Amino acid sequence: MPLSNQGNRASLTFENTIKINADIIIGADGRMNSVARQYVNGNNTPIYQNFVNWIGILESNKPIFLENNVLDFWGQGERFGIVPINKYKGYWTGGKSLPLNTSLKNRNNKTQLLKIFGS
Predict the structure, then answer these.
(1) Mind listing the pLDDT tens digit for each residue in 53-89?
(2) What letter does residue 16 receive in the DSSP assignment?
(3) How far apart are CA 64 and CA 91, in angstroms?
C-alpha cells in the first residue's frame, strides 16, 4: 500500500488500485510488518526497544469488575495493566525492560508472569 504526502493531505493507494486522500492516516497494521513504520522511518525493520510485552484476555463466569476502571501499575522497568471489557472479561498487558537476547526459557508462561508481576 503506497503512501504519499501532498501538502497537508496524505493519500493511500490500495492493492486493488483504489486511491483515497485523507487528512490523517492511522497505521494499525502490526508491529512486525508495519507500513506506517516504513512511511515514517523509510524502512520496515523493527528495532528492539529493550521492552517485552505480554498480552491476554481474562474471563470469569462471575462478575470480576465492579466498575469500568483502567488499572495501571508501574514499577522499575515493569508495567502491568488491566482494562475491563465488561463485568466478566478484561484485557491485560504486562511489560518488562529486558536486554536483547534475554533468555525466557520457562515453558509455562503463567509461572513466568507470576514471577515477574506476582507482587
Answers:
(1) 889 999 999 999 988 889 899 988 899 999 999 999 9
(2) T
(3) 12
| pTM of the model as a whole | 0.61
Regarding whether 63 and 91 lie in a shared domain, the answer is yes
Beta bridge partners of 72: 81
Helices (H), 1-119: 35-41, 109-117
For residue 17, what is its C-alpha cell? 488500485
Residue 72 counted as domain residue? yes
Name residues whose C-beta falls within 8 Å of residue 34's C-beta, 6 or more positions apart in sequence: 27, 44, 46
The residue behind cell 502491568 is 80
Judgement on whether residues 64 and 109 belong to the same structural domain of the protein: yes
How many beta carbons lie within 10 A of that of residue 90, not counting itself?
A: 20
Nine-digit cell string for 94: 504486562
What is the tally of structural domains in the chain? Answer: 2
Question: pLDDT tens for residues 5-25?
Answer: 556 677 888 889 998 888 877
Closest by alpha carbon to 43, among 34, 30, 52? 34
| Residue 94 is assigned to a structural domain of this protein | yes
